[in-house]
Specification:
Elements: E1 5-11, H1 18-28, H2 46-51, E2 58-66, E3 69-77, H3 85-93, E4 97-103, H4 110-121, E5 125-131, H5 140-151, E6 159-160, H6 169-179, E7 193-202, E8 206-215, E9 217-219, E10 223-226, E11 231-234, E12 237-241, E13 245-248, E14 250-252, E15 256-260, E16 274-277, E17 295-301, H7 307-319, E18 325-331, E19 335-342, H8 345-357, E20 363-365, E21 369-370, E22 373-374, E23 380-392, H9 396-405, E24 409-416, E25 419-427, H10 435-442, E26 448-459, E27 461-468, E28 471-472, E29 478-481, H11 485-499, E30 507-513, E31 516-523, H12 539-559, H13 566-573
Parallel strand pairs: 1-3, 1-4, 4-5, 5-6
Antiparallel strand pairs: 2-3, 7-8, 7-16, 8-15, 9-14, 10-11, 10-16, 12-13, 12-15, 17-19, 17-20, 17-21, 18-19, 22-23, 23-25, 23-26, 24-25, 27-28, 27-29, 27-30, 30-31
Helix pairs in contact: 9-10, 11-13
Length: 575
């Protein structure tokens, strides 16, 4: 009965306690027995557990009795990081309400506000909750003021809990049932319309769709269509999350569950797509977007023997991650590899870690490059973002200096008690040029950020090549801002000189733009003592030997094949 269903998410900034609160709900509702319950239970990914952050959303259906009535509670634990903001937005579109969780020791941070705004766009009912009230450093009264002044809640709405100890969580569960509305009523004769909010690949059963049904129903052996991708499939199983898959006869309007499709390519079942019955004419649900990778790396094996292993490992990961894009790439210095597109830097870190820990591959990643758009005529367009920075007010000066140095255009600043919210417009490429570490450094770790891509703008970029003895080193070439080219050229050539070892021949390191040399360094050769065996003799004979040595070294420079030790290459690629 849809009137007794509650669909809700937990949203928060990273590390404010979402997964711990989900654990308490599983315990309270006896969905998972206490003996089997381990911390971050819904985070089944070991990397997610190790990092203590949710990197993959997790749905679960819980049963709970309140005042003699049985309720079905569908909880979706969401990622908190900005790389996964689209995934969060589709999760919220599948819910009627959300718990907005704020750490009592840290207060409102950048993604708190970003998720709050996303939830408001979906017209969700929000329940403000202050977590970690058991900690000695808790400052719940100050955080409550932030929720009232910055987000417009009333003090009476705020619930105080400790997800760790369980204090206040039972009351919160009751408030979720009382305040979050059930799914809207629909005419039972309406055709199936469901939102895909996630998908995973099962090697035995194909792609498993996570969906919220807005109307109609679906059962085993139904034929369904993905409206955006125009994919037709037969449903081989339906069911719900407990949190593991539990098959049932059918899913109906208002419910959240899964559909087993048999599809072997996850890219045919994009998040945000709309499912309907075959040949039924329904309008797709709003908000659909194709996932667009924003950061690209060259990914190479550390030895050529590992190429096939790396290719298989990347293909395996891409089965469960439709946002990864993979194409072949070749480097004269690293051999055959792949150009891989990621949603952001954290996404890239996670994939690299999965390759290492799950697939036993040690990949080498080249310098990151953001998604540029190029036009005929040489015009290059780069992505821009609206950046929000949360920081204690005493660090505002340092933050503004960093933002200015990163080509940020100041938009606005607002003060709330001892905190400031700064808004900037900035090239997205600043993320790969150390924006976050620099902000953390000038704010003693207190700054938090959120961003939204706003579009592409023409950029004054030039391609910089690094050459050794006139041989271009392909993996070290990059696009740089024209006004910074000379500085970067000097920096890169000096760094390469510091990391290269001497050879028998002279090594000339150059940085060039459009054929013009902007910086030059030189590594002198080993000096072989050709006179060592001469105990005597006249000066003329010695000069002839030295002249012959000089000509030999000149020939070495002309015929030598440039070889860069991997250690030196790694030092350049890893910044």
């Amino acid at each position: 009965m849809s009137r007794n269903i509650r669909n809700f998410a937990i949203i928060a900034h990273i590390d404010h306690g979402k997964s711990t609160l989900a654990d308490r709900f599983l315990e309270l509702t006896e969905t998972v027995s206490k003996e089997k319950l381990k911390e971050q239970f819904l985070d089944q990914n070991p990397i997610s557990r190790e990092r203590g952050i949710t990197i993959k959303l997790a749905p679960v259906r819980m049963s709970y009795k309140l005042e003699g009535v049985d309720y079905s509670l569908n909880l979706i634990d969401t990622p908190g990081h900005m790389d996964f903001s689209y995934e969060v937005s589709r999760t919220l579109a599948a819910c009627e309400g959300a718990v907005l969780l704020v750490d009592a020791t840290k207060g409102i941070q950048a993604q708190t506000v970003a998720h709050f705004n996303s939830a408001k766009k979906e017209n969700l009912v929000l329940i403000p909750v202050i977590n970690k009230i058991d900690l000695p450093s808790s400052n719940k009264s100050e955080v409550a003021k932030q929720l009232v002044e910055m987000l417009g809640f009333t003090e009476e709405e705020i619930i105080y809990i400790s997800a760790k100890t369980g204090e206040g969580t039972e009351r919160l569960l009751s408030e979720i049932i009382k305040k979050i509305p059930p799914p809207p009523r629909v005419d039972e004769s309406e055709p199936l319309k469901a939102l895909v909010f996630d998908a995973v690949f099962d090697e035995h059963r194909g792609v498993v769709i996570f969906a919220k049904l807005f109307s109609g129903s679906v059962k085993k052996q139904d034929k369904i269509e993905f409206i955006q991708s125009k994919t037709l499939v037969d449903v081989s199983e339906v069911g719900f999350f407990s949190p593991f898959l539990v098959a049932e006869d059918n899913l109906s309007a208002g419910e959240i569950g899964y559909l087993v499709t048999g599809i072997k390519d996850i890219r045919k079942t994009r998040v945000g797509d709309t499912i309907s019955s075959q040949n039924s004419e329904v309008n797709p649900l709003p908000g659909y977007q194709m996932p667009k990778p924003m950061v690209f790396f060259g990914v190479y094996p550390k030895t050529s023997n590992d190429y096939v292993h790396l290719r298989e490992a990347l293909n395996k990961l891409s089965l469960n991650d439709g946002s990864l894009t993979i194409s072949n790439e070749y480097s004269a210095f690293l051999g055959s590899g792949f150009r891989v597109g990621f949603l952001g830097l954290l996404h890239a870190e996670i994939v690299k870690e999965r390759l290492q820990k799950e697939e036993g591959v040690e990949p080498l990643l080249t310098m990151p490059r953001v998604l540029y758009e190029e036009e005929a005529g040489g015009k290059i367009y780069e992505p821009f973002m609206n950046l929000t920075i949360f920081v204690p007010e005493n660090f505002v000066g340092g933050v503004m200096t960093v933002a200015q140095n990163k080509k940020g255009r100041f938009i606005d600043i607002a003060y709330h008690k001892q905190n400031a919210i700064l808004k900037y417009e900035m090239p997205y490429s600043m993320f790969i040029r150390g924006l976050l570490p620099e902000l953390k450094s000038v704010s003693q770790g207190f700054a938090s950020i959120d961003y939204e891509i706003t579009g592409f703008r023409q950029a004054n970029l030039v391609k910089m090549d690094i050459l050794i003895n006139d041989n271009p080193i392909d993996v070290l070439s990059e696009l740089v801002y024209k006004d910074e080219a000379e500085f970067i050229a000097r920096e890169k050539t000096a760094k390469l000189k510091a990391n290269l070892s001497k050879q028998q021949f002279r090594q000339v390191i150059q940085a060039s733009v459009g054929g013009k040399i902007l910086a030059r360094e030189e590594i002198t050769p080993y000096r072989k003592d050709v006179l060592a065996k001469m105990s005597g003799g006249d000066r003329t004979r010695k000069d002839k030997l030295l002249e012959a040595q000089k000509k030999g070294k000149s020939k070495l420079i002309n015929v030598s094949k440039v070889e860069i030790p991997q250690k030196a290459l790694l030092s350049m690629l890893q910044g």
